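Retro notes, structure queue

What went well: the backlog is down to a handful. What didn't: a couple of records were mislabeled last round, so from now on we paste the full input next to the output in the thread. Example, using Ubiquitin carboxyl-terminal hydrolase from Ailuropoda melanoleuca:
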Amino acid sequence: MQRRGALFGMPGGSGSRKMAAGDIGELLVPHMPTIRVPRSGDRVYKNECAFSYDSPNSEGGLYVCMNTFLAFGREHVERHFRKTGQSVYMHLKRHVREKVRGASGGALPKRRNSKIFLDLDTDDDLNSDDYEYEDEAKLVIFPDHYEIALPNIEELPALVTIACDAVLSSKSPYRKQDPDTWENELPVSKYANNLTQLDNGVRIPPNGWKCARCDLRENLWLNLTDGSVLCGKWFFDSSGGNGHALEHYRDMGYPLAVKLGTITPDGADVYSFQEEEPVLDPHLAKHLAHFGIDMLHMHGTENGLRDNDIKPRVSEWEVIQETGMKLKPMYGPGYTGLKNLGNSCYLSSVMQAIFSIPEFQRAYVGNLPRIFDYSPLDPTQDFNTQMTKLGHGLLSGQYSKPPVKSELIEQVMKEEHKPQQNGISPRMFKAFVSKSHPEFSSNRQQDAQEFFLHLVNLVERNRIGSENPSDVFRFLVEERIQCCQTRKVRYTERVDYLMQLPVAMEAATNKDELIAYELTRREAEANRRPLPELVRAKIPFSACLQAFSEPENVDDFWSSALQAKSAGVKTSRFASFPEYLVVQIKKFTFGLDWVPKKFDVSIDMPDLLDINHLRARGLQPGEEELPDISPPIVIPDDSKDRLMNQLIDPSEIDESSVMQLAEMGFPLEACRKAVYFTGNMGAEVAFNWIIVHMEEPDFAEPLTMPGYGGAASAGASVFGATGLDNQPPEEIVAIITSMGFHRNQAVQALRATNNNLERALDWIFSHPEFEEDSDFVIEMENNANANIISEAKPEGPRVKDGSGMYELFAFISHMGTSTMSGHYVCHIKKEGRWVIYNDHRVCASERPPKDLGYMYFYHRVPR
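Corresponding output:
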């Protein structure tokens, strides 16, 4: 309580009501049970409204609920009172006035200001030498708006005084996002000091990574114990990753992993599966060196100079930010900037582009009253509320007004400054969308493309009824794989949300200039002379589009026609065109020395883009499809995949397990089948198979295996190599249920994966939301009509197909050598002209660098 005197030592506000001590006590008595003292772990919001970007600096101040410690602006506090019945709020207001001038006209010397007690960020546009601040706090009792000026130590009940003091002295819940304190907030993993690393000879190359359990080449994590490279978490549609890194931890118990692509000399994104949070590894350089990765060597480039010392790199920053040009600031609705929280520009750029799309504006800002009225009791932890808040902040114009010192003569007479808030701080939004995410919860720079997909994932998971604005990005990709030996083909479809274009460096139109520049650059570096002016490779967009459409080799292709590995090629086409097409230029890679490299290229991106020629055509006349046979299941070493072993030879059936079951009273032949079809995994697993199959008419019939006396293979019937039959074989269902999964989960997983056991298990792990009581599965299971069962299919992904003609309306550019460093800005075409959004600065663009972008946003136009 030492600070109470300082906090409450100021005179009561002039607008406070004068009441006797008995009157104040009488007012508070009915509300005393609702007033709480903040406990450890309580988040006290006194800087920002839960529904808007109002703060104590705002004209109406901020109201902090004395029970939930949520804060609300004047416009929203009544809503919270009506919903919760909480009546007592602390009203916080910061007044800004010009300092008294001295005789010479300058401000008087600085002195300690005892009138500031709120832990707030001051307005960046205000010069502290010219302005002074005064904080005011008072209790307000709703609905009659009774005001109790603070301090009132002698008159307030002790509990209320303690609660007020605790609220005022509390720290910001976002303190760990501040750039100077973030690294201290990440805990050091308890496994870092004594991490076991296997001496297995694994060396990780600087590129060409692929998940060891699937074909994914993005979102990959290196386990720091055994060097396994496995994919990260999955998204709603199974994109982004299949969760194999987590599965590997569950199987092996190896706790730490680092995300490939985030490694810099300053650190990397490290995640502890055991501790379930991002962590610091103080011995990361040593742990990476164990697998051949020299992290500290990445301080420099080939000439030993730091990237920031290379002069030509600065020109990229100048061109993209339009440095040196007289850019006119823009104000009003749709021209609000986002303040940089410390490497949060990737988030700001993506959100500016997202909320320039009408579908997102309608879904969130258009539904603002309904979303706010039906928000949960803690709106800071609700995605739709925070999206709506951010969208309204960007589009309302309320936080983007021309700088005005004073709007009324009356304010000038009072020498009071009415601050104009330009730009909003997305602290609450970033804290929620990055929660528990190992990359975005850090304060390091991130990949804007990865954040875009993360945001789409959140939109999908939190859709408002049937309305889903992310439908505008979704499209279907047709993948055609051809066996080079038999010439047979297979067509499949997958969902995607952006088009990734390779950089066709070999198609540069200025190769002679590039060669001459490279020779001059190396000579200058060798002689320590100034580097020549940068020459960028000029790449035709048509060459990148051609590279996208060309066939690519398929690694480890298994031909079902040959039933063996063979050479295969894959081509991709659009099975549908999205309403909004997002194009990513794949500019980033790694050199042989693990130094991140960026293709510093100029690509003539078109304003009008026609990709109708990339429309998928499906199976063509004369093409023969590959047989629908799954590859044989390989026997891995880890415990999970041992459950997917191939069937055993009947002569190798575990007779001890058979006898244990027979002693329970089951028919001997049924026991033999149970042990056989569960792969000799023990009497308990076989018992589960018996329970599932004991009502079948051939339950006690002898075990007959055509694969050992006829032409058919047992594995074909049991492991789903029987084509597109929609009713899963009971043998595979039994194997999955014996692992502890519900039967309904097993059936739905097998149907979704064409009865492939390995893929079905992955499907179950990546779809935890499908529980036992799934209405769809129960309805299908109870349907006695086999024809209806085989014809019923789950609803496919919703797409908004149409023409493949598009017009460019926004692009995000990156400056720097890696997505893990540098800076992002966004250009958006509004009202017929280009506008640059560079953090909180929003200006009319004079020369939009459309050729240097990283992500491009197109909208469909009629042909």
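Agreed that this is the format going forward. Reviewer comment attached to the example: The domain at 24-98+116-121+130-169 is CATH 3.30.40.10 (Herpes Virus-1).
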